[in-house]
Amino acid sequence: MMDTTAGLVGIAVLFVLLALRIPVAFAMFMVGFFGIWALNGLNAATSLLASEAFTFGSSPELLVIPLFILMGNVASITGMSRQLYDAAYAVIGSVKGGLASATVIGCGGFAALSGSSVASALTMGKVALGEMERYKYDPRLSTGVVAAGGTLGILIPPSTGFVIYAILTEQSIGRLFLAGVFPGLLLVSLFVLAVTVLCYLRPEYGPAGPKTSMNEKLVAVSKAGPIVAVIVLTIGGIYGGLFSPVEAAAVGAGAVILIGFAMRSLPLVALWTAAKESVVTTATVMLILIAAHMINPFLALSHIPTLVGGFMDGLDLSATGVLLVILLIYIILGCFLEGFAMLVLTLPIFFPIIVAEGIDPIWFGVLVVLALEMGLISPPVGLNVFIVKSIAPKVSLGQIFSGVALFWFMMLVTLVILVMVPQISLFLPTTMFG
Amino acid sequence: MRLWPQCRSKRLENIRKLADRLIGLSAAIGSTALLVAVVVVLIDVIGRAAGNPLYGSQDITTMAMTVLVFAPMALCDRRGGHVAVDLFERYFPARMNKLIDILVAIFGAVIFAALAWATWDSAKLSVMLNLSTNLLYLPKAWFQWGMIAFMSLASLGLALRALELSLTGRDVRAEKSL
Amino acid sequence: AQELKFANFTPPFHTVNASVIEKLNADMSAATDGVLTVRGYHGGELGKGPVEQYIRAVQGVADITWGLQGYTSSQFEKAMIVELPGVVPEGKSGADALWDAMDLIGGEFPGTVPVALWTSEPNVMIMREKVVRSPSDLEGLKIRVAGATAGKVAEALGATPVQMPINQVYNALQTGLIDGVFTGSSTLDDFKLDEVANSFTIGAPLGRLSFFAVMGQGSYEALSDEAKAAFDASVGRDVSNNAESAWNATGVAGVARARQDAKNTFVDLTEAEIQAFRDAVSAVTSTYVADVGGDATLAAMQK
Ligand code: NA
Ligand code: NA
User: Fold this and answer.
1) A158: preceding bond cis by omega (within 30 degrees)
2) Interchain CB contact of A21 with B (< 8 Å)
3) Among candidates A93, A88, A118, A92, which has minimal Cα distance to A106?
4) Using CB atoms, which chains have 3+ pairs under 8 A with B?
5) B27, B66, C70, C255: which has the highest count of C-beta atoms within 10 A?
6) Are residues C110 and B128 in contact, defined by beta-carbon separation less than 8 angstroms?
């Protein structure tokens, strides 16, 4: 009981520290460190400090983060992002909010390349935010689109979210990947719909550009050739078996650097600046990730997750009721926990309940990953919002949170649709695997 | 607050100049590590396609990562890069915001000092257990010592920022960055 | 009552839970009338990943941890000999081989009390679109390997060893980035590799994986005399062999299930075919043993 009290106090303190503007990473370090100290001794707390820092700071998977940031930075310095957005602007700029819709679709495409929401938001943010600013889009819309669109990284395969879910629950990774495809496309469509409706009602959010001739469109699109080639090369290389998704990030970065050299748009000084900017952003992101994983052992030691599971058992609900309560818990937990930490803590408790209720585990996996995406943009701890903030320092966190609200709501709508129509998730895996 | 004698404030400025040089150097080491990682992965990918991957490439990239993640920490804070929830800032009185700024810098200094100290402990174990990477046998302790240096610099940078904020009111984060 | 924390970086239904964690809990609480119990913290709740587990035991993050010697092979120079092809004799368990060599390898476990030492089922070839019957079939194929010695084995067979974290293997096999993996058959279940692999070669001497479970010296010293006695009686060969049998059973079940699937090709090598592989890899074992001065250890493991 004392353990649980400590856990609840820890969560309350975390909220207070965050509200007092203590940087997110610092607040999580403090709560995690003192919480583990209280429940497991000072040695355990210090030891975890060093081992989580080293484990995350030397993780071969997380190398994608600095590599994709570098790719995004070099693409903007050399003007490749600009060419890409000029092309998008020429093609659909005359539609209100057209660039924001293009960014959503871009995020969906990038998600086919990246398994991580953080990497997606960072790269797309580096490419898109400055460009949408240039075309006078409201920062709430542009940052909201990037933060929310970035979360598609874990719904559209490949996805680290599905991999972790599969390993924690002994489900098929292949089935889960396929199950994420249609929900991902549905979410992209609903995001585009939301952008279009918003900009139709409030044109100042995404002002329409001038109409362009077919010739102007063709010229703009052909100028974007180099960056399109890089994107095709990296996605093609992954699916063609030439390199892994992590290596694709290095190939993408290497390719934009070489193109920059070849086109004389990347002086060495600029490359050096891009590298420096990239590692500084990486430091911000990694410190948050490491700190988030100090909270994880603390909550495990407090036994709060086990308690919640026991409470669920006592409620005596129907299968649908159980599903809805669990999803609600995920949405609430998602407000203040890092997504993967949340999976590790809760799945061992919830998954047996789900199986006992006869709920399809693949379908449940899709719902959980979508709830996890909502957590990535919900206050107060919204990892993707922090990520976007780290690359858009001039926009306040409040503005970004208000910008993602619309998209959070569209995710909720998607979640409801997916709950009502399981076939959207299950059609592909059932057809392909039988 | 402004009673702080002129000559001491001058001394603080000199310390800041020295600190900025170290912070810049540290970040430069991180940038180099990132470019090294890119080159190593590219050589590995191209070599593998030709049936000849780079031996131990993962050893190099993961250890380069310890450098590129922690070396820029000091610069990250120098630029005010650590993300905070700014939702309520405008409702707080100015004095409270200033106090919070100082406290944050002190907390940060303590956290990075604790990280450095814990890593020091762990590095001693790495030596005792003879830990190294699996293919190239790069000793783990070397990279932990590097991390300790970077974490200590970040801690000192934060401590200096706390001093400046409380003694002269200078906030380096608002200035043109390195 | 005292509860020992056992940190498990894998999910709760992983083989290790029933065969080591729950067994220790049952044995110790039976010996102490429920005074001393063991509680598993699964899925890396107490700290992520396999690499830092030994250190976490030494520093008291958990009382007991388990891990793979191969993730920090430089620490376990001599203990790693058990992983090499042809070391564990037919009919002897890897656990017994390790405990027989305890006097020689015990120094590689400083700051802890060994709870269990065991090995996996022998490695098999898990391939995609490539059927392997002889070393020449492996010529130029890209094979994912876990560590340096496994890499040497792959090289000795003419393959190109590729380093990659285990959780990226699924994607890499699917896209054809790698042609196969040399690892224990229990990973068929653990990492779903049978979904993307379709050719399996069994019987070649490719070595095996080895595992440890250790208790931090500090946690051990803190036990009462009675608890120490119950602990001492519960750890060692018995729980180690129990773990190894469970691993073997998981591996056998994985293979049996994969054999049911019509898409899969199974190559069960004949004695003559096995000899060709044995000849190709024998130098790997002898070179490694010579490099670490492990003649006595090898002899103890094989006695
Ligand atoms: Na993805
Ligand atoms: Na959240």
Assistant:
1) yes
2) yes
3) A88
4) A, C
5) B27
6) yes
* Residue to substitute from C14, C15, C45, interface A, most A β-carbons within 10 A: C45
Instruction: Provide the token pair at C133.
Output: 């019957």
CA distances from A424 to A181, A293, A367, A418, C127 (A): 9, 34, 11, 7, 33
Q: Assess if residue B4 is contained within a domain.
A: no
Tell me the torsion sign for CA atoms B94, B100, B106, B109.
negative
Q: Is residue B59 part of a domain?
A: yes
Q: Please report which helix (H) or strand (E) contains residue B82, including its range.
A: none
Give C173-196 pLDDT, tens digit per residue: 988 999 999 998 888 877 778 889
Axis-axis angle for helices A173-201, A139-150 (nearest 10):
170
**What dihedral angle (degrees, nearest 10) is formed by the CA atoms of C268, C274, C280, C284?**
90
Give the separation between CA C110 and CA B129, rounded to whole angstroms: 8
Note the ligand closest to the C-alpha atom of A369: 1
Report the candidate in A117, A122, A130 with the shortest Cα–Cα distance to residue A79. A130
CA distance C161 to C102: 31
Q: What is the pLDDT of residues A159-188, one digit of tens each?
A: 878 877 876 777 877 788 889 999 999 999
Q: Given this model, what pLDDT does residue A15 score?
A: 82
Query: Looking at residue B5, what is its pLDDT?
Result: 65
The mean pLDDT of chain A is 88
* pLDDT greater than 50 at residue B1: no
pLDDT digits over B122-146, tens only?
999 999 999 999 889 999 999 999 9
Check: CB of residue A195 under 8 Å from CB of residue A409: no
Pairing between strand C199-202 and C64-68? unpaired
Give me ligand 2 centre to Cα A300, in Å.
Answer: 19
A261 touches chain C (CB under 8 A): no
Tell me whether strands C64-68 and C123-127 are parallel, antiparallel or unpaired.
unpaired
Q: Please judge whether B121 and A22 are an interchain contact, meaning their C-beta atoms are less than 8 angstroms apart.
A: no
Q: Measured between alpha carbons, how far is residue A79 from residues A227, A260, A263 in Å?
A: 10, 9, 11
Which of B127, B129, B130 is the best substitution to test chain C (most C C-beta atoms within 10 A)?
A: B129
Residues 6+ apart with CB under 8 A from A124: A72, A103, A106, A107, A110, A146, A149, A150
Q: Please name which ligand lies nearest the alpha carbon of A371.
A: 2
Using a CB-CB cut-off of 8 Å, the residues of chain A touching B83 are 23-25, 284, 288, 386, 389-390, 397
Of the ranges A57-61, A332-336, C101-105, which one carries the lowest mean pLDDT score? A332-336
For residue B104, give the chain A residue with the closest CA.
Answer: A22
Rounded distance from Cα C93 to ligand 1 centre (Å)? 43
Q: If you count residue pairs, one on A and one on C, with CB atoms under 8 Å apart, how many are there? A: 103
**Residue B85 or residue C56, greater confidence:** C56
Terminal CA-CA length for chain B: 27
Please check the confidence at residue B77 and state whether its pLDDT lies above 50.
Answer: yes
Report percent pLDDT > 70 for chain B.
93
E-only strand ranges, A133-175: none
For A25, how many CA atoms within 13 A lie in the half-sphere containing its CB?
Answer: 26
**Closest CB to B108 among A26, A50, A63:** A26
Ligand 1 centre to CA of A188 (Å) is 13
CA of A369 relative to ligand 1 center, distance in Å: 12
- Contact indicator for C5, C46 with CB cutoff of 8 Å: yes
Distance from the Cα of B3 to chain C's closest Cα (Å) equals: 48
Position A44 pLDDT exceeds 70: yes
Beta bridge partners of C214: C65, C114
- Split into its structural domains, chain B has a count of 1
Continuous segment of H or E residues that includes residue A353: helix A339-356
- Owning domain of residue B87: 10-174
Q: How far is the CA of A245 from the centre of ligand 1 (A)?
A: 10
